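Hi U.,

Before I forget, here's the chain from the pilot set. I'm dumping it here mostly so it's searchable later in email.
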Amino acid sequence: MSQFLLPCRCGGEIHINRSQAGMSLPCPQCGELVEVPTIRKMAELRVATESPTSQPAKQSTALRLFAAISLIVGLVGLFDGGMVFWERSSIIKGLENMKLNMSMSEDDFLGDMKELSMKASPADTWDYWNQLIDEGLTAPDPPEFFKYKRYVESRSPRMIRSSVIGFAGLLFFAICSVAMFSGKRK
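Structure:
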């Protein structure tokens, strides 16, 4: 449909088409209502070469798409980071409830075990020796405490990475939202 440019007293122009004949439209620059002429008088107006909404509509669609993707990435990142944080917190709370020293390292633990073995009675040593002969020498597994402690420490980078991605996604969403709403006011 052909577009025409309706001049305003302020010097601005309003894009109109034939379906708006006889209406009163606000000027985008000054806000004053301008009477749209009849279809016959529209032929005297200058023809618009480009639709006023074609370019901003494309930009607005791309901006909305980027905002939606940013929001999804932000929410998924924060959800993942929150789930890892909750998991780590519950494991740490469980370990603290076991009344274990959270600052003890595996080397400290093995040193304590060696010291205890040196204080063992000959009967306990003989029983342990017979157990080794019957079952064979196996690699000792570290206590569950150290497995959980290593697991908790290994989850920290993922928690931090997910949280940063989540906050960045929400920041981009906020920037896109501000850009969309400020573009609509102009």
